[in-house]
Amino acid sequence: MTVTKQIDADFLALPLRPIATAALDAAQLAGATHADVRVHRVTSSTLRLRDGAVQAAVDSSELGFAVRVVVDGTWGFASHAELTPATAVATAQQAIDVARTLRGLNREHVELAPEPVYVDANWVSDYETDPFAVTTADKVAVLAERSDRLMASNGIDHVTAQCLQVKEQTFYADLAGSSITQQRVRLDPEFEATTVDRNTGGFETMRTLAPPVGRGWEYVGSDDHWNWTEELETLPILLAEKVKAPSVVPGPTDLVIDPSNLWLTIHESIGHATEYDRAIGYEAAYAGTSFATPDQLGSLQYGSEIMHVTADRTAEHGLASIGYDDDGVKSQSWDLIRDGVLVGYQLDRVFAPRLGLERSNGCSYADSPHHVPIQRMANVSLQPDPAVDRSTADLIGDVEDGIYVVGDKSWSIDMQRYNFQFTGQQFHRIRNGRLDGQLRDVAYQATTTDFWRSMSAVGGVSTWRLGGAFNCGKAQPGQVASVSHGCPSALFRGVNVLNTRTEGGR
């Protein structure tokens, strides 16, 4: 069920337009060729339980506004927490002063790609129940009941549960005449079970596979959108099997990778690698640049011919989905990799002209009213087989001796987004096309292009799932963004598998 939501009345009651008008008028009078104002409120709630008891229940809210200007081809930025027209004028003047101070140091004249004007535009994400309208007691009751269910299972010694909840609201206006109001909600629920070996003191964990998502409390409070009942019943059985599983034999191995694991590999080896600012070396201090440089656009064989990857700011329930970005650009979907070849990048209004594009594809975002909008990741997704709805079981059936990888865990990738290794939650041995127990101590290692070129089959639409993360970091000062990645199950041939216990010298 989809319920049409309205932007909260208390946000609309703020002096949004008086602040914007005062700041934009002051900026234009001072000589700005571009100016925009963003009133931004972020409301967050964190619940954490251990063994059914509340460990943390923290609510927070940040409210303020930011003014960006371009003066003589140079950016200026300033922000403030006091929402008054007088403060808006002073903040705009401060942004002008910053631009003029930096003008002598600026070596690149700011040129913004054009964008249509959007007057009185509104956008609200698709959710049913506002999590901030549900009492903390009711939310704790749901998490505690599910924790108790896990604790009652044989072999489970400890259970942690958490749910992160965010509501984000923005009002954007610029000198061109756009005025845009938006609201979106997102959740990140998780349950993790731990079993302890009393003799050795060793332990093993396993957590739920439910991804963070752009939905409301309905995602956690019922089984309508995720089958919590089935997963909580199955998790202790899988964990008990994992504890007794043999250690993996390393070497080249065929892998069937579930969407619950593959999304993270997409994020690190494709999502970050196709951010245009990284590709040109503009972003380097936080997690490096990218091997996928613009001179290879249209020629780099990123993966096998069945590889089709899109960037999408409109994906339903996507964490990076929004109506308009923080440059006032309407959200879009576009190709990054087609037939295995690099064909596009993620960029904003500043970087679009540098790549020779007439328009930004809408990847500007700031996580706070006091941070400058930067280029951030869209929902980057591997597309399923458009012709055949091949199931995960079908992919497993094509493997004589291999591993089925489920769930994300730790990862590592170099500063060029090229050499990597990933682990997971579950590793099921495949023998003669069937699952045959679990393995332990597994990681898969490759270079980005070798890995994606080894992809020999992708599942159909029925296997496609949307994963993602709340905590994608970038920039200095650091900013955090939420982003989703969809993918089907996929089959990779001859990927190098490591034994993490041996690699760690244990």
Features:
alpha+beta; 5-stranded mixed beta barrel; 12 helices; globular
N- and C-termini, Cα separation: 51 Å
**Radius of gyration in whole Å, from Cα?**
24 Å
Helix content: 10-25%
Taken from the alpha-carbon principal axes, the silhouette is globular
The major β-sheet equals: 7 strands, mixed
User: Low-confidence parts, pLDDT < 50 over ≥5 residues?
Assistant: none
| Tally of alpha and pi helices | 12
Q: Mean pLDDT, as a whole number? A: 96
Task: Provide the β-strand percentage band.
Answer: 35-45%
> What is the strand tally?
22
Structural class category:
alpha+beta
Q: Can you walk through the features of this model?
A:
With 506 residues, this protein is an alpha+beta fold. It has 12 helices and 22 strands. β15 and β16 form a beta hairpin. The termini are far apart. The model has no long low-confidence stretch (mean pLDDT 96).
Q: How would you briefly describe this protein structure?
A:
This protein is an alpha+beta fold and about 500 residues long.
Give the SSE layout.
Blueprint lengths: L8 H4 L3 H14 L4 E17 L2 E19 L2 E7 L4 H18 L18 E4 L11 H16 L6 E17 L4 E18 L6 E5 L10 H4 L6 H16 L7 E7 L1 H13 L4 H4 L29 E4 L20 E6 L2 E2 L8 H4 L9 E2 L8 E2 L3 E4 L9 H6 L3 E13 L5 E13 L2 E5 L3 E6 H6 L1 E4 L6 E10 L4 E9 L2 E10 H4 L3
Parallel strand pairs: 4-6, 8-15
Antiparallel strand pairs: 1-2, 1-5, 2-3, 5-6, 6-7, 8-22, 9-10, 9-14, 10-11, 12-13, 15-16, 16-17, 16-18, 18-22, 19-22, 20-21
Helix pairs in contact: 2-3
